[in-house]
């Protein structure tokens, strides 16, 4: 795939905005308005220029209100069992929109197909059924310990 | 007889058998990605509290911006055509840059310097060193952005776009360059 110059500039801009949002939140954990603004700008740019984003990056952005999701600070993460499978549910605290991710150890490689080498899609959440797992997420902020309730939805 | 009476009644009067009105369905809120007006109501913009959070908190943002621009232009002072850098600046993002107002139709805006926090369609939001949030309209203003010795002037009147739209638009040299 050729890399035309405009795309590279646009991608650099996107990554800059993402880092800027993280930087702003690191300085000032209370006010998330500015970070949300940057993420909204990012999303608009990606929509205009139709740029593909890596799924691991997309997961940290809320689709409803386009705020940066940092578990423990901006969103909550829970592990639930639904129909015998382990899901991770992320809920954004501002717009209360939730996302579900299937958490299956055998499912790790579906982002790593040889046709689309977008990089390895490492599942950041280790599939452990036991509670009190500190999820390894690259944030500068202290992470809260997540206590997943063992509620089985059936 | 009651039956005849009933039949008489039925024959003369019109009887409504079925009541059928079509209600227009209310517009479903199918926009899971939109909600623009409501979002903005939730104060996505600034509160006044961050003014207590000083200018010094935004300095790392400025450093990040400098690195980004250096990366974009591939060098500090390459002595190459400034037009290249201009073209890249047009598509670049200005959040976190230190801008100052050099010329303006309104004299009270001249000389305002600070870090750009937000850029919307008509306005720049800047925080000055005295921790004051200044809202400066782009219209009829000339802004100066400086990077590593390169000073560029931005004519605000031509820049009346949201920052995200700017990277998608091609700029043409139209009209006189004036305040």
TrEMBL record, chain A:
Q: Name one Pfam family in it.
A: Rpr2
The record's keywords, sorted A to Z, are: Metal-binding, tRNA processing, Zinc
Q: What residue spans carry the region label Disordered? A: 112-154
Asked if the record carries the keyword tRNA processing, the reply is yes
User: Gene3D superfamilies this protein is in?
Assistant: 6.20.50.20
The highest taxon in the source lineage is Eukaryota
Instruction: Name the family the entry cites.
Output: Belongs to the eukaryotic/archaeal RNase P protein component 4 family.
Q: What is this protein called?
A: Ribonuclease P protein subunit p21 isoform X1
Q: Report the source organism.
A: Equus przewalskii
Q: What is the lineage of its organism?
A: Eukaryota, Metazoa, Chordata, Craniata, Vertebrata
Record gene name: RPP21
Automatic annotation (TrEMBL), chain B:
What parts of the sequence cross the membrane? none
InterPro entries per record: RNase_P/MRP_Rpp29-subunit (IPR016848), RNase_P/MRP_Rpp29_sf (IPR036980), Rof/RNase_P-like (IPR023534), Rpp29/RNP1 (IPR002730)
The main location class comes to nucleus
Pfam families reported in the protein's UniProt record:
RNase_P-MRP_p29
Q: Where in the cell is it found?
A: Nucleus
Q: What's the superkingdom here?
A: Eukaryota
Quaternary structure, per UniProt, is:
Component of nuclear RNase P and RNase MRP ribonucleoproteins. RNase P consists of a catalytic RNA moiety and 10 different protein chains; POP1, POP4, POP5, POP7, RPP14, RPP21, RPP25, RPP30, RPP38 and RPP40. Within the RNase P complex, POP1, POP7 and RPP25 form the 'finger' subcomplex, POP5, RPP14, RPP40 and homodimeric RPP30 form the 'palm' subcomplex, and RPP21, POP4 and RPP38 form the 'wrist' subcomplex. All subunits of the RNase P complex interact with the catalytic RNA. Several subunits of RNase P are also part of the RNase MRP complex.
Q: Which family does it belong to?
A: Belongs to the eukaryotic/archaeal RNase P protein component 1 family.
According to its UniProt entry, the function of this protein is described as: Component of ribonuclease P, a ribonucleoprotein complex that generates mature tRNA molecules by cleaving their 5'-ends.
Name under which the protein is recorded: Ribonuclease P protein subunit p29
Q: Gene name on record?
A: POP4
